[in-house]
User: What shape does this take?
Amino acid sequence: MKLYSPNSEERAFLYQEVSHLEPLIKHLGSLSVVVEDGGTDGFRVTFVVAPESVGLKIQATGPDLFEAAIAAKDEAARQLNQVVNALSPEELPVFSIPRELLH
Assistant: This one.
């Protein structure tokens, strides 16, 4: 796979998908997004949550960039919810995540 530079529509879509994760990651650090094009193998989208501390890496593939981004976002939300749900109630105010956002 080779690095892919998304066009403006694709970047807007990626930004929209990432914005759904903001309540879960805003206190963990930054988020890096890497898009790769595998030609006939489709696309791979990689989210790296807080590479400077947590370093949680989530990858998903799909036949197109949009499906790969949705799959990566869904998997990232699942994994981040597990991390947050493992925190004690005393630790949750540090993250200030409303309970209704947790699954």
In short: The radius of gyration is 14 Å. The chain has a mean pLDDT of 84.
